[in-house]
Amino acid sequence: MENVNAKYVSQKVSRTRWKPVSVSTLQQPDVFAAGSWDNEDNKISIWSIGSNGGSDMDDGFEGDPQLLCEHKHDGDVLDLQFLDQDRIVTASSTGAVSIYRHHQNSQTISLAQHWARAHRYPCDNAPCTGVVCSSPEIVTVGEDGRIIVFRADQEAVIRVIENADSSTIHAVTYLRTTEILTVNSIGQLKLWDFRQQSNSPSQILSLSGDRVPLHCVDRHPNQQHIVATGGQDGMLCVWDVRQSSAPFSLMEAHSAEMWEVHFHPTNPDHLFTCSEDGSLLHWETSSQSDMPSFLQGGRNTSMMSRSAMAPAGGNQSLVNAWLSGDSSKGRLETTHMLPSQTLSVNSLDVLGQFEGTSPVVGAGEVSREAAAEDSGRMQR
Amino acid sequence: MYGRTSASCSFYKNAQVATQYGNQVSILLAIELIWNLCEVLFIDAAPAGSLLLHLLDWVRLHKADVDEKAREVLQSESPAEHHDYWDVVVSYVLQGRLDEARHMLVKQATLQPAARKMYKLMDSLLSKMPFYNPGGTQTLTEFDVKWRHWHEEVDRCLQDSSFASNRHLEIICKILVGDEDTLLEHKELLSTWYHFLVTRLLFSQPTVKPTELHYYAQSCMTMFLDSRSVPEPLDNILLAAFEFDIHQVIKDCSIALNNWWFVAHLTDLLDHCKLLQSHNLHFGSNLREFLLLEYASGLFTHHSLWQLAVDYFDHCPEFGRVYLELQIERVPVDTERKALKVLRICEQRQMSEQVRSICKIMAMRGLRNNRLGSALSWSIRAKDAAFATLISERFLQDYCAKGTFSDLDLIDNLGPAMLLSDRLTFLGKYREFHKLYEEKRFREAAKLLLSLMTAKIAPRSFWMTLLTDALPLLEQKEVIFSADQTYELMFCLEELTSSLNSAPPSADRPMQEEDIELTKVELLRLALARNLAMAIVKEGTVET
């Protein structure tokens, strides 16, 4: 709970995303975008937590987010992604997909590209629920069960998979450059290979029996077959898409819908989840599964083991760390990052370059947005 | 030309926004004023002695423009000659901030060495004024005696005209002695009747009891306001507070303020202090709950604040739940995510009726948009058997029309949810038959097909389709249906045809269709007979 900054923004925030930082610059992330939902006029906005953002000295203390600019957005912002340094893709409840450009010199936002009614029913709009991009390609999914592929700077739609799902697709992520993964409201993960022309998934994985709707999905940054999902029951599921059609491990996490799950991009022993129950969890697994048990569990020893592990990014033992998911043996620790609150934490994003991590939290329902910096915990 | 129009438009708009914000600010200030007074009078319930100290704090808090003026004066080149100098000194005295007043007076004294003695006298009068110390050992009577001594001393100074040569000091002296006419001459500085009230009490009745307050309040208001001007709503609210008439305060606030926020929260606070028990409403449960419900209902109609209202309803023990139940179904739901949030609120409170109705709305939406899979998922979540049946029918109709199933990802993974309705069970099982058939597990497929009819899972209207599905199985080289199973199939066919024959031949049915139907029956009979023969032969051979 160290270093939590909160700011009331008088709107309900549905998504927040850090602006990507180029690898070459030795710079901490300090700019993020936020999208609102369920307001009379919805907006996307750009915020800065850097000291250069706002010149006002009296207004707030250091690290307090400052509004850089905002732009009206038609419909709820259901998802938001940075396409590159200054372009943002949004998914709207009106079914539209838009690209906004953030002009850094003038600190303004303008609409760069707009696909109206990309997702739709025969005679109505269908909300676009998720977007993922790997510039210049953009993939969106929606309540209409369609998957649409766009290219930035190209007006025509590249590819549409009609009836990709009989229920709502809630989220999408890249597995590899040509493969995506979608989760739907009947507890299934579907793998789609864009190299194939067929309009059916290359693989379907599902939760056995319960058909618990899944709301979010994220892929392990180094090991692309490891995938984490979260759903309506607040359970964290880790899957190995190569091996099994059922989740490898299930972990009790939240008491209500899990809205987002993210691996730490450079330190994948860490994972973050947020939920409708108002909590933001930090998951930490000690990667040394082959370590003698007497060295595990203690706070200090786990710190030590991690520092020993850190340079060997994609080590085999990392696999076991998440796939075993054995919280009973003390290999997995969870920490609440926010003081208890009753309203939903809708979104989180984590961006880590070096030794620090900075999850952004959009606690939409309290009209609050908190940038929780957890650098103390993650150092070295 | 256009440019100017839009510029003046935006100016007009800005001015409008400014007025709007100005109004809001003044309402908030009034609310804070009332809130703080209620805190002093009702919640702190300070006894005589400390009561006045609290009231002084209250006035100082809401009449802070003195400090701004003082800063202006002190920052000028020669503060003592500033035109606001005496206003500041007098204002300090009026608020009982005597130390600050003395600091200011020192500046004047240094400029007038001739009048030094007079300034010194005033300084000593100001410094000697006793203030009640509630934490101290001094009793109220002791304080009262001490204060009277001081008061007499000030009065003496006034009588022997110690300050006659300095108009300003004489005014201060008159204020200190509590001279009402002098106080009323400074209406500009007092600006409100309640400031006048507190100042008057400070210099004439510092040990005022809560019960006496209303008398002074009433008289101060009458004295302060011109006979011409009518008291404003705020004046009446404050007066009611000074009279300790809680209900009048709440009532007047409800009428005067533009929202329920203030009264709801004030009443809640007072209720928690057990100050509202004596009062019963002739409707609803009690005043607190009534006002909270009003406020929460207002919140609920707001397009984005509706979620906050839920907490308020949760804290209304008697009618909160009923209100929530009535309102939650009316939240406009335009995305599934919002629907899920609404559902979560209902599920946490075991409001199964509302869960059903919201799921039904979503299912209807799916059906309307021809998203059968989605619609079915929602009706399964709602455990709505009737609706699941309806959607299953649609699936079966689609199958009959197209010959293929849609939404296989859903139907293949129904699991135990299949048992929700008979028709859904049939749909799931029938799809299972197709899967078995595709996998060439004919025996299992045949058994399943037969059981769908004999266990009466399949609707009668669908039997012909099932029997037709049996045809290719009957025509296989090896025997799939046993003799017993074939008898059962024959029985099913006869039952079906007899019921068809007994029905009166409808005139509007074209002959051709009837012909096809008849041929189908003939074909089936033939296939069944041949299969029966083969089965008997085969079973006979195995036995020997």
Automatic annotation (TrEMBL), chain A:
Bias kind Basic and acidic residues: ranges: 366-380
Protein's name in the database: Nucleoporin 43
WD repeat segments: 207-249, 251-293
Main location: nucleus
Keywords assigned: Nucleus, Repeat, WD repeat
Region of interest (Disordered), residue spans: 357-380
InterPro entries linked: WD40/YVTN_repeat-like_dom_sf, WD40_repeat_CS, WD40_repeat_dom_sf, WD40_rpt
Location within or outside the cell: Nucleus
Taxonomy, superkingdom: Eukaryota
Keyword ATP-binding among record annotations: no
GO CC term, one of those recorded: nuclear pore outer ring
Lineage per the UniProt record: Eukaryota, Metazoa, Chordata, Craniata, Vertebrata
TrEMBL record, chain B:
Gene Ontology cellular-component terms listed: nuclear membrane; nuclear pore outer ring
Coiled coil region boundaries: none
Keywords associated with the record: Membrane, mRNA transport, Nuclear pore complex, Nucleus, Protein transport, Translocation, Transport
UniProt GO molecular function: structural constituent of nuclear pore
UniProt GO BP: mRNA export from nucleus; positive regulation of DNA-templated transcription; protein import into nucleus
Main location: nucleus
Compartments where found: Nucleus, Nuclear pore complex
The keyword Protein transport belongs to this UniProt entry's keyword annotation: yes
Superkingdom of the source species: Eukaryota
InterPro entries in alphabetical order: Nucleoporin_Nup85
Similarity annotation: Belongs to the nucleoporin Nup85 family.
Function, in words: Functions as a component of the nuclear pore complex (NPC).
Subunit structure: Component of the nuclear pore complex (NPC).
PANTHER family: FROUNT PROTEIN-RELATED (PTHR13373), NUCLEAR PORE COMPLEX PROTEIN NUP85 (PTHR13373:SF21)
The protein's name in its UniProt record: Nuclear pore complex protein Nup85
